[in-house]
Write a structure and sequence with these properties.
Chain lengths: ~400, ~375
């Protein structure tokens, strides 16, 4: 029963992601699993020129997406390099503030998290528009109306608060006598900072940097205002979705998911390795300490196949089998796509013919059995008025 | 290489609270000096005033006859060993020891050399590459000492560094500290609430209470001739007998208590008059069970309540006629198997082994 609940929970959590990932491999123009056309990587590559001449960009050929990613990376780097020092400084100040002021200071410091991101975005733009207006045509005006610059500032406003919270948590466990010990041993305040505090805060610096970057990368509601005429990844995606979704977005999502999983797995492997190393050093230490041979027996190093490798091998076997099946049934490759296009084109032509056969005759338009325009002429006005209207796109 | 430390009328205040009040001490170069007192008596504050973390509100701290006011801890010729040792967990043992040299810009080679020398001094040769968490409690202790000694300070300050160790190790470290002090021959200023530590290691001790120094002197003098009831009860154990002064003959004072009159010895600095309220003190080890032919100055009748076996001695808890509880100890070598709770006994003590002081606050209140 328990297992069932867990399965439902994970299905709820990852189901949409899995479905989306699969649609990335369907050659159809609209992200779907059924009807399935062909297995294809084209949404990761160049996309397609549709049978009606419209170009549907794939991941590799979409220059707007590329520009968006580049801006997002620049903004992310900017936000990290501002938020981490600001958060760290604020947290260090918190340790120096006396008890009564402390609560007030803390509340003020975490306030940006509580503000709606929209307001932060708009207020940044409003403020810098005024500042840009003051500076005439020079540098200030350029900077003040630069979307990337404004977005870095706006995002830093609240992301530095998350960094602050990370540093506060780490600093709470800091033994202040270490600072005093270093001072007593002749270190200057600067040396204490760089030789004692910064090494201690290193894990917090790393996680604050990662979190700041991720928050910046995925932020939309602040960015959409402060980015002005530029585009980040999130605003590009949002504007694309407004025009209708394409499997290229599924491909992008899958790429991001894959990168996340690879990063997480790598981190976990590294962490386990260092943990193992630490445990080994502790074991040696304990063995050295133990005078008697009580716990000093030799451990036999048996050969064990790591579980991870078995899992990877299994996945590879299934993938190879699946791929051969797909190729055998002609579900992959240009021929399949051409066939699908041909089918759709013929369907389109069929529909066109049906429409044409249904076209009203001149007689029917001018009255006939339908009654004509005489009675309603005043209502529709001049029938040639919309002649040049191209229709809704 | 050692320096005198002089505290002239030093007071440290936090708001209206006096952490230390008009402290006057002169600590000689090369001396092992201890501040002894209960927690919260201001001894750590004094240490911080000497090391430079806290400037005195009044008075002055002189090290080597130089006023240290406004000089930061990193500029003073002192090293402090913290209660929790405050070793740097991210550095190796050698890096810890050589930290003070590193911040002074000493080359890596010289640092390593000095660290190796000090590792030898603390008998941890070849263990410099270890991380701090791989050391045992006593080894950490020694590394902290080596780290403090690396800059060759003139004064070493120790803030209850042994309090986290277990009993055996603590006893061994006492001897070791004393030996290291003799070898490096610098001034040691030691802070503790453990009178055993203070008495075994120090040349002189200062007993503190409520921010003030109650008595300064060599260990045996403080133990044998306490100047205040606080010192009498804080340093070692003591049985107080409350009463009024009945008769004074030179330094022999007769005190009248509900349990009878006792003859006691008056410290020459403390003047008592007939009729004054006073306390006579007698230590548990100075109370004896008289054998035939013994003739003590004082006799006291007790009713045994309970006893405990401590190994080398046996402690007895008894009540006097008035209900006052007293404690006395008999060496294990003497057969006391006939004594059990309810036994009535006659005890004796010599007037020379008892001191009488004007009534004041006790440490055990």
């Amino acid at each position: 029963m328990m297992g069932m609940y867990i399965f439902i929970f994970f299905a709820y959590l990852f189901g949409p992601l899995i479905v989306m990932s699969i649609t990335a491999f369907n050659s159809a123009e609209f992200p779907s699993i059924s009807p399935w056309e062909c297995f294809s990587f084209r949404w990761f590559n160049e996309g397609k020129i549709a049978y009606d001449g419209q170009h549907l960009a794939g991941l590799l050929s979409d220059w707007r997406l590329h520009d968006g990613i580049i801006s997002s990376l620049i903004i992310g780097a900017g936000v990290v390099s501002l938020s981490v020092p600001i958060g760290m400084a604020a947290a260090i100040v918190l340790t120096q503030v006396r008890s009564q002021l402390r609560d007030i200071y803390y509340s003020i410091s975490i306030m940006p998290v509580l503000f709606p991101g929209v307001i932060i975005g708009i207020s940044t733009v409003v403020l810098w528009d005024r500042i840009a207006g003051l500076g005439g045509d020079g540098f200030i005006s350029d900077v003040g109306r630069n979307g990337i610059f404004l977005t870095i500032l706006a995002q830093t406003c609240f992301i530095s608060t998350y960094c602050f919270l990370i540093f506060v948590a780490r600093l709470q466990r800091f033994d202040q006598t270490q600072e005093e010990a270093a001072l007593d041993l002749g270190a200057t305040q600067t040396q204490v900072f760089f030789k004692i505090l910064v090494p201690y805060l290193m894990p917090a610096i790393a996680s604050a940097a990662v979190i700041a970057f991720l928050f910046s990368f995925e932020n939309y509601n602040t960015t959409v205002f402060s980015i002005l005429s530029d585009q980040t990844l999130t605003t590009v995606i949002a504007s694309k979705v407004r025009l209708g979704i394409s499997p290229a977005l599924s491909a992008l999502a899958l790429t991001i998911i894959a990168l996340t999983i690879i990063a997480a797995v790598t981190y976990e492997i590294l962490r386990r390795r260092s943990e193992k190393k630490y445990a080994q050093s502790q074991e040696i230490f304990v063995k050295e300490k133990a005078a008697s041979g009580r716990i000093n027996k030799e451990y036999k190093a048996g050969f064990k196949v790591p579980k991870g490798i078995v899992a990877i091998l299994l996945v590879l076997v299934f993938a190879t089998y699946g791929a051969t099946q797909i190729v055998k049934n002609d579900l992959y490759g240009q021929s399949c796509i051409d066939a699908a296009d041909q089918e759709k084109k013929s369907k389109f032509l069929e529909q066109l013919q049906t429409l044409e056969s249904n076209e009203l005759t001149e007689e029917e338009l001018s009255g006939g059995s339908l009654g004509g325009t005489e009675d309603y002429g005043d209502i529709f006005g001049d029938p040639s008025l919309f002649q040049d209207f191209g229709g809704f796109d | 290489m050692s320096a005198d430390v002089e505290l002239n009328n030093v007071s440290v205040t936090f708001g209206s609270f006096y952490a230390a009040k008009s402290v006057n001490v002169k600590i000689n170069g090369g001396e092992f000096f201890s501040f002894l007192g209960p927690s919260g008596c201001g001894k750590t504050t004094l240490l911080r005033a000497i090391s430079g973390f806290q400037d005195p509100s009044e008075g002055s701290v002189l090290i080597d006859n130089k006023d240290m006011f406004g000089i930061g801890p990193n500029k003073r010729p002192t090293s402090l060993i913290f209660q929790n040792l405050a070793l740097f967990p991210l550095m190796s043992v050698s890096e810890n020891i050589a930290f003070s040299l590193e911040v002074r810009g000493v080359s890596k080679k010289d640092r390593q050399k000095r660290a190796d020398e000090l590792l030898e001094l603390i008998a941890l040769e070849g263990q410099g590459e270890k991380k701090v968490h791989q050391l045992s409690g006593g080894q950490k202790q020694r590394v902290a000492i080596a780290r403090a000694l690396a800059v060759e300070p003139k004064v070493l300050l120790l803030d209850e560094p042994l309090s986290a160790l277990d009993l055996k190790l603590r006893q061994r470290m006492r001897t070791e500290l004393r030996e290291i002090q003799k070898r490096v021959n610098i001034t040691f200023i030691y802070i503790t609430h453990d009178q055993g530590e203070a008495l075994t290691m120090s040349d002189r001790i200062a007993v503190m209470n409520d921010g003030e120094i109650e008595q300064i002197g060599p260990c045996d003098e403080v133990y044998n001739n306490p100047l205040t009831p606080f010192v009498a009860t804080f340093v070692g154990e003591n049985n107080p007998l409350f009463g009024t002064v009945k008769d004074i003959n030179q330094n022999k004072v007769k005190i009248e208590t509900p349990d009878g009159d006792f003859l006691s010895t008056m410290n020459e600095n403390k003047k008592l008059n007939i009729g004054d309220e006073a306390i006579a003190f007698v230590r548990p080890e100075s109370l004896f069970i008289p054998r035939d032919g013994d003739n003590f100055d004082n006799q006291i009748e007790v009713n045994i309540e309970s006893f405990e076996f401590e190994g080398n001695i046996k402690n007895f808890y008894a009540t006097l006629k008035s209900g006052t509880r007293i404690k006395f100890s008999i060496p294990n070598a003497i057969d006391t198997s006939s004594i059990s709770s309810g036994t009535k006994l006659q005890l004796g003590f010599e007037s020379i082994k008892s001191s009488i002081l004007p009534k004041a606050q006790l440490a055990i209140d």
